[in-house]
Amino acid sequence: MAETPRTIEKRVKSAMPLYITALSIIVFGLIFPLYKIWGILLVSCLGVATYFISKSIFKDKIITVDVAPEYKTGVPELDKALTEADAHIVTLRKLNDKIPDEKLTAAIDRMVSSGEGILSELSKNPTKARSMRRFLTYYLPTSVKLMEGYALQQDAGYKGENLTEIKNRIEANAETIARSFETSLDSLYAGEAIDISSDIAVLDSMVNTKTPFINSNKE
Fold first, then answer.
1. pTM of the predicted model over 0.70
2. Which of 15, 80, 82, 161 has CB atoms 3.0–4.6 Å from 71's, for a disulfide?
């Protein structure tokens, strides 16, 4: 399964060697006669030596930069849908860092992995997008809303019978949601239509439960 690239490594050069070299040239220029050729050559050599010495001390840094994949399938509507879906997957990644429950975290990892695989495959084979429309427009964003609500409750410490119930239901059904993501991905490679109506029913039942942190935008 090919995953959508999320980060790249970038080399950042330190500016210190240049500053130190410039300063050294000024200092050496005050010490040695720059109006003579040998003085100019000596200061130049000392400047070069200073640069390489300082460069060995202040080494370049390698940093990791987040990269949003660019979708160019030739179908503007699909590109927009894939971009929005990718944003949802990024949100899932961030939410996962806030959720302490190990089982739920493992389920979200599976959602992210499968979701990235789906976007990667659709970007390569746009003709398969029709079969994933419900996943892209409802299942994925609704799953994200559920996890956002869960994380919000964790951060704010909301309490109440209704909130506790929805939290418990999310934990209990995380496996079902993750499995539906994986089933959706498998169907793309198998070229088969799938029926996840029962899984969607699970989402519907949770979303339709009256709670202050989840609103359904089901199409």
1. no
2. 82
